[in-house]
């Protein structure tokens, strides 16, 4: 019975970035199985195969390190940016908290000022109302005095007329 050889191992495409790995990938398979599925012991490595495998392994490792280094650099840059932005956001948060506290204090002060102005306007309204009441009362007193003055003039005139009548009537007698 003839031993059958399995197909070469399929390697991922990113491994083919190295020309050495691409050139020697068929030689990386050493599985040989018999018909009864018992594997044969691997053939002793030859110097050429060992050198080529070492070169392929070295190229593969270099490719992995290069890829890892590229991604690591990008990730480290992103982490640095995130860290810088986090500290900037923290500073802005503290500044915003301070501005909010100052705004709250200013709001309280403006509320007090508005309340004081409202009370002053209320007092002015009370004073104005009081002045209008006094003015109406003074108009009533003035009208009363005018009516009394007219009445007194009428009484005075009546008194004068009566006095004149008495004087005219009795003057000839008294003289």
Automatic annotation (TrEMBL):
<feature type="coiled-coil region">
    <location>
        <begin position="72"/>
        <end position="109"/>
    </location>
</feature>
<dbReference type="GO" id="GO:0016197">
    <property type="term" value="P:endosomal transport"/>
</dbReference>
<dbReference type="Pfam" id="PF06320">
    <property type="entry name" value="GCN5L1"/>
</dbReference>
<feature type="region of interest" description="Disordered">
    <location>
        <begin position="33"/>
        <end position="54"/>
    </location>
</feature>
<protein>
    <recommendedName>
        <fullName>Biogenesis of lysosome-related organelles complex 1 subunit 1</fullName>
    </recommendedName>
</protein>
<dbReference type="InterPro" id="IPR009395">
    <property type="entry name" value="BLOC1S1"/>
</dbReference>
<keyword id="KW-0175">Coiled coil</keyword>
<dbReference type="GO" id="GO:0031083">
    <property type="term" value="C:BLOC-1 complex"/>
</dbReference>
<comment type="similarity">
    <text>Belongs to the BLOC1S1 family.</text>
</comment>
């Amino acid at each position: 019975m003839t031993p059958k050889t399995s197909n070469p191992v399929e390697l991922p495409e990113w491994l083919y970035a190295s020309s050495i790995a691409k050139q020697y990938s068929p030689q990386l398979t050493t599985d040989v199985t018999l018909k009864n599925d018992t594997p044969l012991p691997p053939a002793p490595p030859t110097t050429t195969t060992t050198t080529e495998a070492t070169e392929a392994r070295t190229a593969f490792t270099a490719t992995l390190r290069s890829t890892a280094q590229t991604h690591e650099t990008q990730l480290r840059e992103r982490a640095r940016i995130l860290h810088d932005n986090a500290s900037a956001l923290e500073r802005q948060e503290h500044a915003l908290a301070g501005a909010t506290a100052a705004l709250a204090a200013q709001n309280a002060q403006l509320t007090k000022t508005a309340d004081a102005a409202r009370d002053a306007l209320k007092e002015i309204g009370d004073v104005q109302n009081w002045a209008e009441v006094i003015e109406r009362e003074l108009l009533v007193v003035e009208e009363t005095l005018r009516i009394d003055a007219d009445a007194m003039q009428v009484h005075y005139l009546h008194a004068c007329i009566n006095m004149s009548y008495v004087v005219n009537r009795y003057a000839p007698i008294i003289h």
